[in-house]
Amino acid sequence: MSRFIEVPARMLPPETLTALLEAFVTRQGYDTTDTGEGMSGWVAELRQQLDRHELIIAHDLELEMTEVMTLAQWRSFGRELADDEEEGDY
């Protein structure tokens, strides 16, 4: 069984999805004044990115954590994890 699964956004309650997207905005350091709509503007933009499959929601079954990631972050994360597993750091 894989440690990570991709979670379709449609499977999450709306308030949970919003909280994940807000955490992503905060973690990435986005300027919430850029959109003119504050945090809600960024959340709306990120929902569109999810629809376009530019972002994914990944759940770590071992750590029981769920994160929003760009595809580049996901690919980088996967490579780093694979390297750790090969070196026995996992």
UniProtKB/TrEMBL annotation:
It comes from the Bacteria. Gene3D superfamilies: YehU-like (1.10.10.610). InterPro entries: UPF0270 (IPR010648), YehU-like_sf (IPR036685). Belongs to the UPF0270 family. This is YheU family protein.
